[in-house]
Amino acid sequence: MTQPPPQREFSDEEIAAIEAEMERLTVDDVLLQTLVTLINLGARKAGLATQPGEEPANRDLEQTRQAIEGARALLPVLEARHGQELAPIKDALARLQMAFVQLSGGTPPPAAPVEEKPEGAGPAQSSGRLWVPGQ
Predict the structure, then answer these.
(1) 126 pLDDT exceeds 70?
(2) Which long-range contacts (CB under 8 A, 24 or more apart) does 107-114 make?
(3) Which parts of the sequence are annotated with region: Disordered (predicted)?
(4) pLDDT at 86
(5) 79, exposed or middle or buried, with CB in 10 Å at 0-12, 13-18, 19+?
(6) Domain limits of the chain?
């Protein structure tokens, strides 16, 4: 049994640099990076990162499905702020979803449940973009 590498001690300068980076970092940055990472990881888990003619070593369609679901869950959070800038990312996600369907024999990942809107809801509420407590 191999032992894990010993814990590394950080110097005061390294800790200060990490803290300075955390001050500059925004939640928006992390969400965008996570979205891109999920799509890239999903493509790798689907075996799409192999060379042409090369058989994927460790295809894992369950991991691919999870990556797709995670990316789809993050998109609405980022759309309000980034709109059209997300077009290339949405395209990459759509291609990943198509590859998943082909690789899994035509079974798409389950769509997010569509919530029924109460009658008489205004345009903001019925668009799904307005959070209403208790709904």
Answers:
(1) no
(2) 109/65, 109/68, 109/69, 109/72, 110/69, 112/72, 112/73
(3) 103-135
(4) 94
(5) middle
(6) 15-110
